[in-house]
Specification:
Helix 1 packs across helix 2 and helix 4 (about 110-120) crosses helix 5. The protein has a single domain (about 1-150), classed as Jelly Rolls (Sandwich), CATH 2.60.120. With about 160 residues, the chain is of the alpha+beta class. The longest helix has about 30 residues, at about 120-150. About 40% of the residues lie in helices and about 30% in strands.
């Protein structure tokens, strides 16, 4: 089981270049979380307590406005979520709901603090990788917004 989880983490861009020793340290401090279809991993504005790596299942990411839920994206097995709050130390920016029964690795926030104390170089690498992943997702969001503006023919005056 540990070996399968180690392989899963090694495939994530966030952990690219991170040593097996540090990944083993991370896994030793993780917990396995099961969330059933329709239940939330966390909701928008919750206090962050870690990030998740989806081992099985799929999740919807959504935001709520005036009681209505707005779909942002779907993540599947092998994807991670919740890392943004670990970088900016802010509340959760969206809710994450299980589309079907899910199992995830939960990496507590304090684990990253421990890595920073133990191996600052590896911690910096993880932070840099997280920044890259967030930028990748921001570019996708920018493209979606742009396509919607074009569709609505919303331009700025010259």
């Amino acid at each position: 089981m540990i070996e399968r989880r180690l392989d899963l983490l090694q495939q994530l861009p966030i952990f690219g270049g991170v040593t097996d020793k540090i990944l083993g340290r991370i896994l030793a401090r993780c917990e396995c979380v099961r969330v059933f279809k329709g239940e939330l991993f966390f909701k928008e504005n919750d206090h962050p307590d870690g990030m998740f790596v989806l081992e099985t299942g799929s999740v919807d990411i959504f935001k709520t406005h005036q009681g209505d839920k707005y779909y942002l994206s779907q993540l599947n097995e092998g994807d991670c979520f919740g890392e943004m709050a670990l970088i900016d130390m802010s509340f959760r920016s969206a809710s994450v709901r299980a589309i079907n029964d899910c199992q995830a690795i939960k990496i507590p926030t304090k684990t990253f603090t421990e890595i920073a104390v133990h191996d600052l170089e590896q911690f910096a690498l993880i932070q840099m990788n997280m920044g890259r992943e967030i930028c990748r997702r921001l570019r996708i969001a920018d493209d979606k917004l742009f396509n919607q503006l074009v569709k609505n023919h919303q331009t700025i005056a010259s």
